[in-house]
Structures are given as C-alpha cells and as structure tokens.
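User: Sequence in, structure out. Go.
Assistant: Echoing your sequence, followed by the structure tokens.
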Amino acid sequence: MWRCRVCGYLAARDRPPRECPICKASQDRFEPFPPVEGARPPVWRCRVCGYLAARDRPPRECPICKASQDRFEPFPW
C-alpha cells in the first residue's frame, strides 16, 4: 500500500500511481504505508462516501464528497 504525503490518500497496489487522484501530486510524493513495519498511523474514514485518509487528523473537507471534518471517523485497521 502507498500513501500520498500531500493529502493522505491511500492506494492499495504494488506501485504508487503516477498521479494522486485526489490532489494531483506526482508519483515521487508517495511513500510505502505504513512507513515503518508494524507501525499503525491513524486512518480516517469519511462516513458519507468511505474515502480513507492516512494522516494525523481528518481533512477539513472530504476531497471526494465535500463532507465536513466532523463527518470523519477513525478507521480501525
């Protein structure tokens, strides 16, 4: 899995995408996720559309459905 270091988007694939579908960051802005084996950084899920973001806090607004920050919940993984 790969995480966009700009927006926290998670890509479940062998290689990072050429471009982040959310923030348009280039492939070199992705990092393996989790960054350290065994580490479990916070992941947030939009309760409206299911978007997942791996970052310390949920985004202010969902980049997919535009739901507000209070519509995010911790995602157990």
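User: And one key feature?
Assistant: Strands lie at 2-4, 10-11, 30-32, 43-46, 52-54, 72-74.
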